């Protein structure tokens, strides 16, 4: 049985690339420090943080940070295109995780644009916080 964070990433990424808006994107499982302009557009789903608090003697509350990152080429309107991407991503992530009966909320959205080799490149990162209850880890 896959780890719960692996399931989150796989479910969300599959739902994103199944959407017509992102179907031509390269799906990255590992987000490299830099992506050359010829490889764009790219999309990735990451779970870089998992807060854990003891809930009872046998359970913990996990607050997992799930991030969706998109990088694409664009014109002067690249930030506008990323804003449109963000609306679609939010709807897909929330619908996908609700199907998994997973409480989830959008926490943060950031958009950065720059110029690479005289071409505009925009990066969108959306952070969602998922909450789950897990048994306390024990040795097998």
Can you describe what's shown?
With 140 residues, the chain is α+β, with helices and mostly antiparallel strands. It has a single domain, classed as Alpha-Beta Plaits (2-Layer Sandwich). The chain contains two helices and five strands, in the order αβββαββ. It has helices spanning 4-18, 78-99; strands spanning 26-28, 42-54, 59-74, 104-116, 119-135. A five-stranded mixed beta sheet has the order 1-2-3-5-4. β2 (42-54) and β3 (59-74) form a beta hairpin. α1 crosses α2 (78-99). The longest helix is centred in the middle third of the chain and has 22 residues, at 78-99. The two termini are 15 Å apart. The model has no long low-confidence stretch (mean pLDDT 91). This is DUF3168 domain-containing protein. It comes from Paracoccus versutus. Keywords: Signal. Residues 1-20 form the signal peptide.
CATH topology: Alpha-Beta Plaits
Q: CATH class, anyone?
A: Alpha Beta
β-sheet strand percentage:
35-45%
Number of helices: 2
Radius of gyration: 17 Å
Give helix % range.
25-40%
Unreliable stretches covering 5 or more consecutive residues: none
Order of helices and strands: HEEEHEE
Per CATH, the architecture is 2-Layer Sandwich
Spatial order of the strands in the main sheet? 1-2-3-5-4
**Main sheet record:** 5 strands, mixed
Instruction: Please name the fourth-level CATH homologous superfamily.
Output: Phage minor tail protein U
Mean pLDDT: 91
Q: What coarse outline follows from CA principal-axis ratios?
A: elongated
Alpha-beta content class:
alpha+beta
| Number of beta strands | 5
Q: State the separation between the terminal residues, measured CA to CA.
A: 15 Å
Protein name: DUF3168 domain-containing protein
Keywords: Signal
InterPro entries: GpU-like_sf
